[in-house]
Amino acid sequence: MSPVRTASIRARAGMGLALLALACPGLAMAGNPDNTTLPPPPAAAGRWNVTPLHGTDAANAVLMRAISLVGTPYVWGGTSPGGGFDCSGLVNYVFRDMLDMRLPRTSRELAEVEGPRIALDALQTGDLIFFGADGQISHVGIYVGEGRFIHAPRTGTVVRLEKIDTPYWLARYSGARRVIDP
Length: 182
Fold this sequence. Notes:
There is one protein chain. The chain is α+β, with helices and mostly antiparallel strands. The protein contains six helices and seven strands. A five-stranded antiparallel sheet has the order 6-5-4-3-7. It is globular, with a radius of gyration of 16 Å.
């Protein structure tokens, strides 16, 4: 990997951590109360280690990886940091990269995954949140906590962190799914 590419990855990860501290201030101070092993940082070559995590550890791994991708360009059909992401490509990449979890490819297929449906006021970090209209799911993001989610919005934008309680997103909220085991 070129030194410029490596520096770019490190800069994005640093920006992601700063955004994480803003989005979830309690998380930054929470430490590791279980004294469990946390996933190691990415290797110099840009490959992330996959660990068998569950519950809070899995949710935090997903959160950290998703935050590190903030700023990656939206590309329709995109499935990688180097090539860009669409909404479901981002979700698939994060869960596969951090948890070795293979999920359906499209937002509609993701919404059909078996699992508990989650009410807006019961969302937890790592839940998949769905948006659409007229009963049709057209968008997915990853809930990061404190009323915020990460997603790849549309052509001409980048992966970003947004508040779910804006009129635009609330009007389109179609539910959520929990795919991380408690």
